[in-house]
Amino acid sequence: MQLATLQSGNFNVTVNDKDRPAFEVEDISVNSCSPTVVTFSPAAADNCGAVTAAGSPSSGSEFPVGETEVTCKAVDAAGSTTLELRRFVECVGHGYHKRSHSNNIRSRRNRGLKKWLHRNRRLKKWWHRKNRMKKWWHYRRYWHR
């Protein structure tokens, strides 16, 4: 509380901090196929003074493979609090990707063809009919011997 003096008399001025601290939150990605110790520091800022920030689970904890939600809490000098969520995404794969060898329109090698067929919609029906027949002949030829 501040006390101000004027020629006419005294009056009280009260300064309140109503703004909450703000977080700069980013998701953290860790490339690991086993539980990993992750360290982080929640970055929080406030317009008035210092901010205390902490996360739960805390920095330096062992995080399992997959997504883990972390709740970060910041408290400023006036007692205002802010809660934020962070996600830590960790690798689940084995380091290789399975390639699709299918002959359908959604396969990786036909991506340009898919765009072209989207522009030429009449040919799209023909393309699907043609692939359906290929699958039928493949089934008849290799599985019914």
Radius of gyration, in Å, reads 30 Å
Count of individual beta strands? 10
- Per CATH, the superfamily of the largest domain is Immunoglobulins
CATH architecture of the largest domain: Sandwich
- pLDDT averaged residue by residue: 69
End-to-end C-alpha gap: 93 Å
Number of domains: 2
Model description:
With 145 residues, the protein is α+β, with helices and mostly antiparallel strands. The longest helix has 23 residues, at 121-143. It contains 2 helices and 10 strands; from the N terminus they run E-E-E-E-E-E-E-E-E-E-H-H. It folds into 2 domains: 18-90, Immunoglobulin-like (Sandwich); 110-143, no CATH class. Strand 9 and strand 10 (81-90) form a beta hairpin. The strands form 4 sheets. A 4-stranded mixed β-sheet has the order 4-10-9-7, with no helix packed on it. Strands 1-2 form a two-stranded antiparallel sheet. A two-stranded antiparallel sheet has the order 3-6. 22% of the residues lie in helices and 32% in strands. The N and C termini lie far apart (93 Å).
Write the layout of secondary structure elements.
Elements: E1 2-5, E2 10-13, E3 22-23, E4 28-30, E5 36-38, E6 44-45, E7 51-56, E8 61-63, E9 67-76, E10 81-90, H1 111-119, H2 121-143
Parallel strand pairs: 4-10
Antiparallel strand pairs: 1-2, 3-6, 5-8, 7-9, 9-10
